[in-house]
Amino acid sequence: MANSKMIAFPPLDTKLDYYSDWTVRMQLKLEEKACYYAVEHDAPDTDDEEILADFNTQNTKARAQIAKYLGPYALNIVKPHIASAKGMWDALRAAYENKVLQIRQTY
Hints:
Elements lengths: L18 H14 L4 H4 L8 H20 L3 H7 L6 H22 L1
Helix pairs in contact: 3-5
């Protein structure tokens, strides 16, 4: 019988050059869990309870998945944005892309 357990990928931490690979893997994971929408969008501005409930479910799933694949360094980056998957994603992008850009400019 084949082992059907999926192989997890390493968490994002201090290795700056891993960020681009991590984002690809994380996007695929979030799409698999049907919650990537919450990373791309803010909460909808609507009174429709069904739409809000669906978004909140996706946001909760996405936040949990993102946090699951973060090391201590990256987790500290997202702590101020923990209520929003998009906020977490944007904070990581800003932190890692800025650091990579700074390193490239020094060489």
